[in-house]
Amino acid sequence: MKNSIRELRDAHNMSQEELAAKLEVSRQTVHAIETDKYDPMLPLAFRIAKVFGMSIEDVFQHERKKR
Amino acid sequence: MESKDSKSGVGRSYNGLISAILFVLSYLIARIVLKQPDLAEILRILVALLPVVPFAWLLWEIIRGVREMDELEKRIQLEALAVAFPLTLILLMTLGLLEIAIKLPAEDLSYRHVWAMLPTFYFLGLFLSKRRYQ
After folding, report:
1. I want to staple B16 with a disulfide (CB 3.0 to 4.6 A). Which of A41, B1, B48, B61 is the partner?
2. Residue A67 included in any domain
3. Structure pTM?
4. What is d(CA A18, CA B127) in angstroms, rounded to the nearest whole number?
5. Start-to-end C-alpha separation, chain B
6. How would you write chain B as a 3-class SS string?
7. Alpha-carbon dihedral of residues A45, A48, A53, A59, nearest 10 degrees?
8. Is residue A25 part of a domain?
């Protein structure tokens, strides 16, 4: 799954640490999601979308993942 | 605003450290006391089991810590255990099969030594899993 969290975070002038605090997760988790190393579960995906005032589909785009 | 990294970890780490220190101290004390040959058996048993109490506290702190983790941190823990558990099984099975074939040195391969492989395998799994998500 691809996502545009990095771009959205930059647009909102927000650091990984600040986003992690808003989501109540670790900075490592935000980093892993941003770099497509980890796909969040649905509740966290909803919280991420809510932080940026967008829908999940606008933040996450489905893509077959190479593991 | 604090992230989950710093918010929940400090108190838990402090309790974990205290319980780990108490475990090591009680273990060393137990080893010293148990060298006394004229100790009553019931006392020997109580002293030998003394380190179990702080160790149980340490494990409780770890369980509490895992409950407070976010979903990726929990996944990393699961993957670490998924490495540690089968490796421990392989080790125990190997020792068990070798024990049928030959006489193993009881002092070198006692429970005191073999159990330490569990956390060793766990930390190996933790290292591999953490690296995957960095």
Report:
1. B61
2. no
3. 0.78
4. 26
5. 23
6. CCCHHHHCHHHHHHHHHHHHHHHHHHHHHHHHHCCCCCCCHHHHHHHHHCCHHHHHHHHHHHHHHHHCCCHHHHHHHHHHHHHHHHHHHHHHHHHHHHHHHCCCCCCCCCHHHHCCHHHHHHHHHHHHHHHHCC
7. -60
8. yes
CB contact (8 A) between residue A22 and residue B73? no
Number of domains comprising chain A = 1
Would you call A29 and B134 a contact, using CB atoms and an 8 Å cutoff?
no
pLDDT digit string, tens, across residues B37-91:
888 999 999 999 999 999 999 999 999 999 999 999 999 999 999 999 999 999 9
Q: Do residue B46 and residue B32 come from a single domain?
A: yes
Amino acid letter, A46: F
Candidate from A18, A24, A32 with C-beta closest to B72: A32
Say whether the ipTM exceeds 0.90: no
Neighbour count for residue A65 (Cβ, 10 Å): 9
